[in-house]
Amino acid sequence: PSGHAGQGAGAYFALAVLFAMAVGRTRWSAVVVVVGAAVALLIGASRIYLGVHWLSDVVAGWAVAVAWLAVLLAVLSLRRRGANRARC
Prior knowledge:
By secondary structure, this protein is an all-alpha fold. Helix content is 88%, strand content 0%. It has 3 helices and no strands. It has helices at 3-23, 27-49, 55-87. The longest helix is centred in the last third of the chain and has 33 residues, at 55-87. The radius of gyration is 15 Å and the shape is elongated. The mean pLDDT is 89.
């Protein structure tokens, strides 16, 4: 898998999700997530354009990043749920 595409997707998606969570449920949170996805797509496209990776490498890098972020968000959700139960 493409490390550049995976790291770019992981970093920008994570920043976008964290910022969107901080902003709350506004239209800005959707804008931030779309911009993060666009940057990740552009990084992947640049790897293919430069000829250093195949499309399958880039998609695999994105898949690894998204899977890792899903694990991190699940842990964050469980921790928040545990903190809410402790307050009650």
